[in-house]
Specification:
Largest interface: A-B, 58 and 55 residues
Strand order of the largest sheet of chain B: 2-1-5-3-4
CATH architecture of the largest domain in chain B: Roll
Oligomer: heterodimer
CATH class of the largest domain in chain B: Alpha Beta
CATH topology of the largest domain in chain B: Ubiquitin-like (UB roll)
Largest sheet of chain B: 5 strands, mixed
Number of strands of chain A: 29
Shape of chain B: globular
Structural class of chain A: alpha+beta
Distance between the termini of chain A: 96 Å
Radius of gyration of chain A: 28 Å
Strand content of chain A: 15-25%
Helix content of chain B: 25-40%
Chain lengths: ~775, ~160
């Protein structure tokens, strides 16, 4: 049967609005600027809502001798006070290991550990009531720092070692040997929206939870686990977060489970929102590291053998520390070929917050370790560190043979383009000339000293737990031709929703306005992985494409049949469909497909190919591909005070073929500033009793608008294209740019080295706060009798 | 409990508040104006910036009672009907936001800056906004947005004259 075609649109569109590669602003932008974008704590409060305050421990390590909550229960407005004994299911909110109780029983393992929850009519009543708890502690000695944990051999598991070749022999035989240590501080996520969850009880055992989480599936599973019910009774939804950065991958479990528990036990909706101080006191952070290194190298600075000892502070439980520690090892090569290498990882158990995912997931710390070694080697040989970096790069992707490709974990680096990026950046940033000018300027400036550094980044993309590399999507096309899109990824500001909508618009060749982006919910797409590991658009973009192509395939088959042609004669053109010589609008085509009973809804799925990882053997291909970038930072320090400024930053970063340059540039700029903040101003301090003393922005300093380098030039690497078949050959961009911030630390190291005194290496620890810079300068000058 | 009466976004509102009720809580809870966010509760992050009698203030450390008889503008009241304020339009156009949580406070601060200093230098913008923290953008597009808005507004003024 052949029905008459509807009239094609009068003037055929030549391009759609908002397809792949478009410079497209964030989809929620109009709502953000008008204050209409809704976060969990902005949602209309259901009648009868209870507000929850978590009561937490004020000791780092202790037995609970007695906990009297009667005054809490009797406080005004209190509806429920819940402790471990009230949990119907498991007392566990951990992401993996089963070692994070919702409410501590008996043993307290860090200052800030949850003990009980108070639910009251108002937030203020809940807070006031929680303060009335009478708890007596039987204190035990606490292990707080990496040094203490290493001395006490306090580990979560026995040290893990990755080794290739003969590092000890190669170091011993090398013409030059250096050894040293760098301490690298942790980092608070400081997402502007603190953790929040609201639970609404439903029929039977059902509960619906709105959570500010990067991992709705895990929240769903943990709530079911805690309530002792099936996963199918729990629905978790998230429209957006006010930032995540890894801090909402597992750390939202506790308060979401507390809210669900209160909701189920009281039959009333319940909300838990941490205030900033509680959030910083309770939740885990980026792991701090102590890295010891020994390297043997030749007179060109070529590394012949190297050994790292990485000790990281995991805190009181595993959380995600195992893959984080692994990723630090995976990135202890950065862009450099290490022919003989041994990396030992000590996963320290301490009486502090359980450290967690944070943009880069251990990779940044591993990378700081090797960049420090390169800087130290250059200093030892009196060479420009850039020269030493270039000497040690992995083989370029186009260079013949298998030489200089193998990582410490025996994966071949086949896509290396760092040479191209560094060459272009060194040229555009006039690195060489500026370095010489700075030397001359410093000679004439006794107090102020400048420094400059160019550092590269190679970051492995994929979850190293291979099974996590999967994603699902759901696309519904309605009879008017409008499209609803849902996928397992979450939106935390990174622009994922916009990018995946672009993919769907591109596939159907409709304007992006036709594609409605909907909140992530476990009810539509199940069993998802966290939006993490930079993989959001790689995984969900592919899953959405798969779903779109299913529907397109059905439509093509239908019209091919109707017009007696082959499905490959059916083309999706901007706003319309062409079948052979005939055209009809997308809307008309959808209407006809519907009338012919063609299913217009489809799920999509994607599993990253090629990857594998054998941890016992320390071999495999944990990463699908690598993302590359480089940055040049110039800074200035005051050698009398340690005060410092970043003056100019030049960045060239590889995103493959960009899905959206506007969003990618934003990720790069923001990533650099966050990375530079980690290594310069952001310092976490615990008291001797184990209490985090920097638990608010008054004492914990993230970069402000006035801290940013006045001259910042950011460019996407042109001609970038993923060698692997990723979504439209793009590359992940969430985490890699954070590590561009390492150039700030190395520039400060260069400035300190120029402060004079001796030729000793500055050995600057991170964060390079004014105090640390001043101490480093004084150390050098005292030794040289300059002071 | 004191009763307060004030102008919020051009409308007179009144309500009973406790002596210790914060202005943010009054706006968010009593009036449902949730565009004003709370990021730190301690006047550091600037997510809660609104205008009180024409000046930008951090509403998380002002008592609702202190706003009695005042004229308050929140992010919801900055636009004129459907027309965005030039600062709002510029933040949207310049992609001066990512997660958006700091955006309302950032815009309210920037709007106050431009009302007091219509042609600020880049350094003046950076200094003025240093009490508004953003964890996502690195501030590049935020500063650009304020510059665009300044240009737009001076153009408007010239046109009006």
């Amino acid at each position: 049967m052949s029905a008459p075609l509807n009239n094609p649109p009068p003037a055929a569109k030549t391009a759609i609005d908002g397809g792949v590669g478009a410079f497209r602003r964030h989809d929620s932008g109009p709502k953000h600027v008008s204050g209409e974008a809704i976060y969990v704590d902005d949602m209309p409060e259901p009648p009868g809502l209870l507000h929850i305050q978590i009561g937490y421990a004020r000791k780092a390590h202790a037995k609970i001798a007695a906990m009297d909550l009667s005054r809490v229960r009797n406080a005004p407005g209190v509806a429920a006070v819940l402790t471990a004994g009230d949990i119907p299911g498991a007392n566990d909110v951990s992401p993996v290991a089963g070692d994070d109780p919702l409410f501590a029983e008996g043993l307290i393992e860090y200052w800030g550990q949850s003990l009980f929850a108070v639910a009251a009519e108002t937030r203020e009543q809940a807070r006031r009531a929680a303060a009335l708890a009478e708890i007596s502690y039987d204190e035990r000695p606490a292990i707080l720092t990496i040094d203490e944990a290493m001395d006490a051999q306090s580990f979560l598991e026995k040290p893990y070692i990755m080794e290739r070749g003969d590092p000890a022999g190669a170091i011993e035989a090398a013409p030059h040997i250096i050894s040293g240590r760098i301490n690298i501080g942790g980092q608070e996520h400081f997402y502007l929206e603190s953790q929040a969850a609201m639970a609404v009880p439903g029929e039977d055992e059902d509960v619906t939870v709105h959570s500010s989480t990067q991992h709705p599936s895990e929240i769903q599973h943990k709530i079911a686990h805690v309530l002792g019910i099936d996963n199918h009774a729990v629905t978790v939804e998230v429209r957006r977060m006010g930032g995540g950065f890894g801090g909402k991958e597992s750390q939202g479990n506790l308060l979401a489970c507390a809210a669900a528990l209160v909701a189920k036990l009281t039959g009333r909706p319940a909300k838990c929102v941490y205030d900033r101080d509680d959030d910083m006191t309770i939740t885990g952070k980026r792991h701090d590291f102590r890295i010891d290194y020994q390297a043997g190298f030749d007179s060109d600075g070529r590394i012949l053998g190297i050994a790292f000892e990485q000790a990281l502070r995991c805190g009181m439980s595993w959380d995600l520390s195992e893959p984080i520690a692994d990723r630090a090892m995976f990135h202890s090569d950065n862009c450099y070929y290490l022919p003989n290498v041994r990396i030992t990882s000590y996963r320290c158990k301490t009486n502090t917050q359980s450290n967690t995912a944070f943009r880069g997931f251990g990779g940044p710390q591993g990378m700081v370790g090797i960049e420090r070694v390169i800087d130290n080697i250059a200093h030892e040989l009196g060479k420009d560190p850039l020269e030493v970096r270039r000497t040690n790069f992995y083989a370029h992707k186009s260079s013949p043979g298998a030489e200089r490709r193998l990582t410490p974990y025996s994966m071949a680096v086949e896509d290396c383009i760092i040479q191209d990026i560094v060459a272009e950046l060194a040229e555009s940033a006039a690195y060489q000339r500026r370095r010489e000018n700075i030397r001359a300027w410093n000679d004439a400036s006794p107090v102020l000293k400048r420094g400059i550094a160019l550092t590269p980044v190679k970051f492995g993309i994929s979850f190293t737990k291979t099974f996590l590399n999967q994603a699902g999507a759901l696309i519904n096309v309605y009879t008017d031709g409008s499209i609803q899109l849902n996928h397992g990824g979450t939106e935390m500001g990174q622009g994922l929703f916009t990018k995946v909508a672009q993919v769907v618009a591109e596939e159907f060749q409709v304007d992006i306005a036709k594609v409605k982006i909907t909140a992530t919910t476990t009810g539509k797409v199940p069993n998802t992985s966290a939006t993490a590991a930079s993989s959001g658009s790689d995984l969900n973009g592919m899953a959405a494409q798969h779903a779109a192509r299913k529907i397109k395939g059905r439509i093509a088959e239908f019209f091919a049949q109707r017009y007696q042609t082959n499905p490959d004669q059916v083309e999706f053109l901007p706003g319309r469909i062409r079948i052979g010589e005939s055209e009809l609008s997308f809307e008309a085509a959808i209407q006809q497909a519907y009338m012919a009973r063609i299913p217009l809804s489809a799920t999509g799925f994607y599993a990253t190919p090629k990857i594998s990882w054998d941890k016992a053997e320390g071999r495999g291909r944990p990463f699908y591909y690598f993302a590359y970038g480089a940055a040049v930072t110039e800074c200035i320090i005051d050698t009398l005070t340690g005060e410092n400024r970043l003056l100019r930053v030049d960045i060239l970063h590889d995103v493959g073929k960009s899905l959206n340059p506007a969003i990618d540039l934003g990720q790069i700029e923001g990533g650099f500033v966050q990375g530079a903040g980690w290594l310069t101003t952001e310092e976490l301090v615990w008291s001797e009793a184990g209490r985090l003393t920097t638990h608010a922005p008054s004492t914990y300093k993230i970069p402000a608008c006035s801290d940013r380098a006045p001259d910042m030039r950011v460019k996407l690497f042109e001609g970038g294209e993923n060698v692997e078949q990723t979504i439209y050959r793009s590359k992940a961009v969430g985490e890699p740019p954070l590590m561009l911030g390492i150039s700030a630390l190395m520039a400060l190291s260069d400035a300190v080295a120029n402060a004079g005194g001796t030729s000793d290496y500055p050995a600057l620890d991170a964060p390079a706060t004014p105090e640390r810079i001043l101490f480093a300068v004084e150390r050098l000058r005292k030794k040289g009798n300059v002071l | 409990m004191p009763t307060i009466s004030l102008q919020v976004n051009g409308k007179t509102v009144s309500g009973e508040v406790q002596g210790n009720t914060l202005l943010t809580d009054f706006l968010r809870q009593n009036l449902g104006l949730t565009g004003t966010h709370v990021g730190c509760d301690t006047s550091q992050c600037g997510a809660c910036v609104i205008h009180v009698n024409g000046d930008s203030i951090k509403a998380c450390t002002m008592l609702a009672a202190q706003a009695d008889n005042a004229s308050v503008t929140t992010i919801e009241g900055l636009s004129q009907g459907d027309d965005l304020h030039p600062v709002q339009a510029a933040f949207r156009e310049a992609h001066g936001l990512q997660c958006g949580f700091c955006t309302p406070g950032m815009i309210m601060s920037a709007a106050d800056l431009l009302s007091k200093n219509p042609n600020p230098s880049e350094a003046e913008i950076r200094s003025w906004l240093s009490g508004n923290l953003c964890r996502c953008t690195g501030y590049h597009n935020i500063v650009k947005a304020v510059q665009i808005a300044a240009g737009q507004m001076s153009g408007q003024r010239i046109a009006a004259e």
